[in-house]
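Table S2 (continued). Query chain:
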Amino acid sequence: MDIKRFKWYAILYLIVGIIFIIYYRCHRHKYKDKFGYNGFFFSIILYYIAVPVYLFLKIDNFMSYEATREIYGDNSIFKYIYNSSPDYIFLALGLIIVFYLSFNIGYNLSRKKDNLFFLKLNEEILEKTIKFFIHFSFIVGSLSLILLFRSFGGIRNALAMAEYYRSFSNEASSVIGLNSLFLISSRLITITPFLVSYYIEKYRGKKYSLFYIFQFVVSFAFSILFYLYYAGRFPLICFFLALFYIFIRNRVKKPWTLIIILGIVCLPLLDVLNDLFTFFSTGYFTSIKVDYVRYIYDFIYPIRNVINVIPLTRISGYRFFTDLPLGILDLLPGISLTPPYYTVSAYFFGYNWKMIGGIPTDAITFGFFQLNFVGVILFAILIGFIIQKIDFRLDKLASNSKYYIGSYFTMMCFSIVNNADTYSFFKGQFFFIIIFIILIFSSKRKEKK
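Corresponding output:
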């Protein structure tokens, strides 16, 4: 096939991306300090616009890179993108447009409804609630992580086995039993640095600041260990960038612009972190070579999924939104269901995919699995509705605490686009629930007169 056609695909996707950005710029006053919206929007731009454009422009380089990997299933770009029907490429673009429009509909409908009400916040209760969650997340999260690593025989052993247990064919519970449940509660420690940063600034120069600095240092170190063990390289970089936003927001005019630039520049850090993972596993460092094709390769799976939604749904059929409640049930011990990423992983990597590692289900593919275009529209509206509810309440906070809560919330919303399986959400993104609890306990709604 003529590789030049992918240049035209890149132009089309770029035009759509420019339209999205123009819309965002024209309404930036409405979305300023809307943490959830901004996180979700920039994730859409990254995974559904920027990555496809770069992939289409450099598709021959990506296929050459796959040829050097010599791993089963690594001819996916040639098989599932290069050889795809042009109709599938255009369908993917149409789904991206529909998804973004539907997300905005859900966000703005919820916004109009919320504007009919006045949200009265009790700042005193808010302060007490945040302090409670600081201590709760610090104690429960740190103890859970310590007990988890102790089950493996220490930090080094746990990190050495991290890659092994990220493979779906290997369960940590087979080695450490019920202690594997500490993996869920240990995620709480990643919340602490964001919440405690607020009090470090508030009590700067006072006796209380030393205590909060201690909590920050410990929780920051434990958070890095958690991400090294459980989440991998890219979530760790997102964690660093979200924290960095807190410290630069009052020092530069456009902090998010700087964050985006740093995110691109820091992509070679993936190599450094990869070497760190290799060192923990083998005890040896490997050489580092800057190659953006190799970095972007880790981000192509959402667009690859969307291009192949038709053959994927032919295999599994539609799921009619059963994944929403089943995602909660799948967390219970002894219950093992079949989430959408099982179908996605088996399609691209074959039925032995668990030996390699799974492929997350992105937001558009997840919606399409539910009920075709209707599923994409309804799922996007639901996401927009929920994100706006939290954004609205964060925006009403009078204190600077909204920036510390909001930076973490931005990171959470950013991660929905590339991993929308409800099982993964309920297992790892429960900070949404904590934000709701903090704001609900600190607010009272009254109708405007």
